[in-house]
Specification:
With 410 residues, the chain is an alpha/beta fold. The chain contains seven helices and 29 strands.
Length: 410
């Protein structure tokens, strides 16, 4: 069996090697509703100004332009009819006002809009009129055409995340599709003789497979396409057949395994990748948890991530090494590949006595306080269940209660 490097590489080098192997996917025109969570493949330029015409910012009255301004106490004749959103542009002349509603085109000849709360009306007068309660300025409560966005202006940059608000901006320009790489198709393989699917009774020495739902949930959060899943015993023939089936179905391009990635007698993932025609890019990362992580590439444009079988290790490896690669495959801008750290205040004292950086699982509350939760061992589920942030603790580093730190949300 091949052996891992004598000295695991640094996490930063591991990520660099992975990203060097996985290019952004080819872009396609995808319908707007299928683009949520993906990334834009090219700069998006505005086709129309926004607003496309001068319109009212308030419900009230459009007032005809006047060189004398709009002083409190001035009286205006109210014309019949109204201006509503979606209606044609009206026309008013000196001394006239027209009832208008938010979003309606500003009538030709109008210079300002008075809020309905700022006028007095006397509907009993022979000529229906209004009187201003306060001074108004030229252009007040008028949204000018192009004041938000000009035609040809960059609306979204290449690599921008297609959030719901970004999709809204695209739809406002009349677009029904957007160019972006489609979600990568990813398969999941969990391994271990001890694993039993949830819902089934546990025989002696067995545990429920918690890694499959963990990875399924993480991949859904990443907005990728789940091509297939399988759970397999630590038997070489079975592993090879199962992995081959996963890689062959639904155009699967990335296979993520969980378990069997170390060098024990029942660890066959390194052997498996070689049997499937993959070339090992790295095996062993100087991080805790997650040291026996493996990454391999296939000449036909497929990639294999071998995650450790302990849940905390799989979780940390996914966030630190797999998720950035998925984002790159989806065309994310380089600055978006690794989530930014956010400030926090440490609760409790922490110490890393080991020789590897430790990604501590913890919880950052609404007030910005971070506390490590549960056992910080790779098998521990309780702390992982309450984890919403990771704290990077360097080797031999000690942090005291109350220290200002930065953490990575997960």
């Amino acid at each position: 069996m091949p052996q891992p490097p004598p000295s695991p590489i640094e996490e930063s080098e591991a990520l660099d090697r992975i990203l060097a192997c996985i290019p952004a996917g080819d872009s396609e025109e995808l319908v707007l509703e299928d683009c949520a969570g993906l990334y834009l493949a090219r700069d998006l330029l505005a086709r129309y100004p926004s607003p496309p015409f001068d319109c009212s910012a308030m419900d009230g009255y459009a007032l005809a332009h006047t060189a004398e301004g709009y002083p409190a106490g001035s009286t205006w004749k109210i014309l019949a009819g109204e201006g509503a959103a979606g209606s044609p542009t009206e026309h008013i002349t000196a001394g006239q006002a027209l009832r208008i509603f938010t979003g309606a085109p500003i009538p030709e000849g109008a210079g300002a809009v008075a809020m309905q709360e700022d006028v007095d009306r006397d509907p009993q007068s022979p000529a229906d009129s209004l009187t201003l309660r306060c001074d108004y300025r030229e252009g007040e409560y008028v949204r000018r055409a192009g004041s938000d966005l000009c035609a040809g202006q960059v609306l979204l940059r290449r690599g921008a995340p297609l959030t719901p608000q970004a999709l809204s901006a695209g739809a406002s320009q009349g677009l029904i599709t957007l160019p972006c790489p489609p979600p990568p198709r990813v398969g999941i393989l969990t391994t271990g003789n001890e694993l039993v699917p949830a819902g089934q009774p546990l025989p002696p020495g067995a545990i429920h497979d918690s890694n499959l739902p963990l990875l399924q949930g993480l991949l859904r959060q990443a907005h990728v396409h789940l091509a297939g899943t399988a759970q397999c015993r630590d038997e070489r023939d079975s592993l090879k057949a199962t992995a081959h089936r996963l890689l062959s179905q639904d155009n699967c391009e990335i296979l993520i395994s969980c378990g069997g990635v170390s060098v024990g007698d029942h660890d066959h993932i390194a052997w498996l990748t070689k049997e499937l025609g993959f070339t090992t890019v790295l095996w062993g990362v100087r991080m805790k948890p997650g040291k026996p992580f493996l990454f391999a590439a296939h000449p036909h444009g497929k990639w294999f991530f071998g995650l450790p079988g302990n849940p905390a290790s799989a979780f940390v490896c996914f966030h630190r090494l797999v998720a950035p690669a998925l984002r790159q495959r989806m065309g994310a801008a380089p600055e978006l590949l690794i989530p930014p750290r956010i400030p926090a205040t440490l609760r409790g004292n922490l110490e890393n006595r080991g020789d590897r950086p430790h990604h501590l699982r913890g919880h950052r509350d609404a007030d910005g306080f971070f506390q490590a939760v549960g056992l910080q061992q790779s098998h521990a589920i309780a702390g992982l269940a309450n984890c919403n942030a990771l704290l990077h603790l360097a080797p031999e580093q000690t942090l005291a209660d109350g220290t200002t730190i930065t953490v990575t949300p997960v």
